[in-house]
Protein: Putative leucine-rich repeat-containing protein
Organism: Corchorus capsularis
Amino acid sequence: MAWKLAELHSLSHFKIEGGCQNLVSFPEEGLLPTNLNSLRISRLLNLKYLEGGALQKLSSLKTLEINGCNELNSLPEHELPFSLSSLTIRNCSLLNPKLQERRGREWIKISRIPSTHLDDEVSD
């Protein structure tokens, strides 16, 4: 993608929603500005992977919301940014069941985040 969003230094919130049928991974490294505060990924029906290295570089990211990404099966192996204080994952039919039990490989990846919202469940 040649969006050059990383050059938008005052961009603090970014939302990508539907319409990207060929998008199977997101975000590309260097796509988003490192000072981004919130990211919402919604209804990317063919999204299978979150690029952990790219997400980890978003050192100001406080809020991440993932909604309706039914092909997303797991979270990145790289740690999510340490700045992340709120994570919401809703309507992700392959991923949510792995997180609901609050144990296992996927849960370990998010257990340190102070506030997690899984479908209608909230953990603070």
Q: What stands out?
A: Residues 105-110 form the longest helix (6 residues). The chain has a mean pLDDT of 88. The radius of gyration is 14 Å. The first strand starts at residue 13 and ends at 17.
